[in-house]
Amino acid sequence: MKPIPRHIRSLRLPHVPMRVALLLLTLCAVVPVANGQGADVYVRWSAEAVEADAEPGINLQLSLRADITDGWKMYAMDSPRPSRGVDITVTDAPADVKVVGSVRQADPRQAFDPNFQIDVTYFVGTADFVFDLDVGPEVDRSSAMLGVDVLFQICNDALGICLPPTTRPLRIRLDGSLVPSEDCLAENGEATATEDCEVGDLSLGFAAGIDDLELPRNGDSGTVSPSYSDSLVESRAGGFFAFLLLAIGAGLAALLTPCVFPMIPLTISYFTRHSKRRSEAVRMATTYGVAIVATFTGLGVLMSLLVGAAGAQSIAASPWVNLFIATVLVLFALSLLGLFELRLPTGVVNFFNRQGTSRSGYLGVLFMGFTLTLVSFSCTAPFVGGLLAATVGGEWFYPIVGMLAFSAAFAFPFVFLALFPKALDALPRSGSWMNVFKVTLGFIELAAAIKFLSNVDLVWGWDIISRPLAIAATIVIFGVAGLYLLGKLSLGHEERPASIGVGRLVSAVAFMALALYMLPGLFGAPLNAIDAFLPPRQVTDMSLYSAFPESMASHDDLWITDDIDGAMNAAAAAGKPLLIDFTGYTCTNCRQMEANVFTRAEVTERFERDYVLSRLYTDGLDHGERFQRYQLGLTGTVALPTYAVVNPVGRLLVAKKSGVMSLDDFVAFLDRGSRDYVENHLATR
Prior knowledge:
- With 685 residues, the chain is α+β, with helices and mostly antiparallel strands.
- The protein folds into 4 domains: 18-184, Thiol:disulfide interchange protein DsbD, N-terminal domain (Immunoglobulin-like, Sandwich), CATH 2.60.40; 255-429, no CATH class; 431-535, no CATH class; 552-684, Glutaredoxin (3-Layer(aba) Sandwich), CATH 3.40.30.
- The chain has 21 helices and 18 strands.
- The protein has helices spanning 18-35, 182-188, 193-196, 226-229, 231-254, 263-273, 278-307, 312-317, 319-336, 346-358, 361-375, 377-391, 397-419, 432-460, 467-485, 502-518, 564-574, 588-596, 601-610, 624-635, 663-684; strands at 43-51, 60-68, 73-75, 87-92, 97-105, 109-113, 118-124, 126-135, 145-152, 154-156, 161-162, 166-173, 178-179, 559-561, 578-583, 612-617, 642-647, 652-658.
- The chain has a 5-stranded antiparallel beta sheet, with no helix packed on it. A 5-stranded mixed beta sheet has the order 14-16-15-17-18, with helices on both faces.
- Helix 5 (231-254) packs antiparallel against helix 12 (377-391), helix 5 crosses helix 13 and helix 14 (432-460) packs antiparallel against helix 15 (467-485).
- The chain is globular and about 95 Å long.
């Protein structure tokens, strides 16, 4: 390591008010936990001790260096917010060792940052930090250690990626050597610590060669192959439009609830009566719609600020988040079924109502729109809650766009009917059908809660909600819903109908048919698209499953689960490439691929013939975070599912692809991966 640069300069940390400091400390503590420690993959740490006698009271300078991967930059200690500059905290020091003054850093670069749209200070290549120490004469420098926590953030301008702030605990001997982490030593043992626990790696022996992992490249251009790097964008595009349709459908469905539907003709009539011209009525209705859109979209903005883009994936996998969503869905379901009614405080509703009636013109109409969203809370909350639950696994814009689409669909009839008032005559009259619609939604939300409870069960390892139990509970819920729609059952607050209409009969048939369709799943039969919302079959396999055709089996016995070293060794021994399935217990798209693609004969044939298979759960309690970091370092993404073809000789990445794929696309990926492996393997021999 080079001597400590002369341009190292002193840095005085700015004073921060206590309340602001506590807030920032809380945010910095929460964000890294939610997002995993991905930045560690791209930064290696080293240290050096140099004797110093230039100033009295300082006899040792301890230099800490960060080696930053090409293409990435680390924000300096004095970089302004919202970038997260390096923050080094001494957590432990021997009694006879004193840290003198502040930590100093090398001169950083300064430039405009496209990620944060401000001028920042940063390091590329290397970053040097220096501690001035006063070490007592009796201290054994070969064994005495300084404990520090280094919080840092790195970004890649070319990729447009900023990884969340990461805290790296380091233990530095006073002779300048770094001590491997305790987690790594516990994993590999003292005997192999120097080989498998090199500081800066992923604290796992299998990841010691992380710098040797190479992305597929086109010639010498240094760019990732477009056929693989674009796959994540393609899969997200399809998912986004499906989510958009879900949001619009939820908004239209919310209009049919008893709290909202009767308000449509009353509101349009109010605009017609209180405006002298038709154009004025249209403008008032438009203002009313804008108020509705602003209210719900504001909720989406709040959700995105709380969740953020980088935290979405890990938050979606959190068992606490899934437990909260399941609880909310159950409460909403019971409310829709008539057990109780969800209401906002009366004072809040009355305040907005007074503002709407006491103010004239468009300001009063705005408050009327706000009042509608509050009054209809008991009916719209289940839709809004379910929609926001669907956004947790997406990016930051999903809550905003979702609520914008929901509210636009919700407000559309008010504007449309103001333009065409005669269309009011075509609306069906309010009646008991709205209560039936609300109760039916309650059954659907109750079934949806099973999915999130299953996620909690899988991550925490309770082994209570098995696949057959989840199927059985869903069958019972859909069966009861069908009987209710047929008029064979009634809830306590209503009477049985003397007769039922065609719409109610068709809905009952649909529920009963779905319940019967799921019945073979109790005995292990695949349920195609429905399997995406059920616990993985390999967790709750049944003996009767073997009675189904060979082509329907998922060959789970071929997969080596959560053991990357064992899988690499098996692949090397077999002379085959390793296919790594980065998956999650809570990943719906992963279940969809496993149920609908992995079970097909074309895929299982290639699994057995061409590959050794490895499955890594990135949201598990034991190694989930480490596997997620390994996935990020290997593939450059934490999206689930992600599939990587790796050459076990040298552990080189051959091919990768993310997201849900069709059968043809996945078969093409497997064929290309095995073909590229042969070429890669010959080149490395």
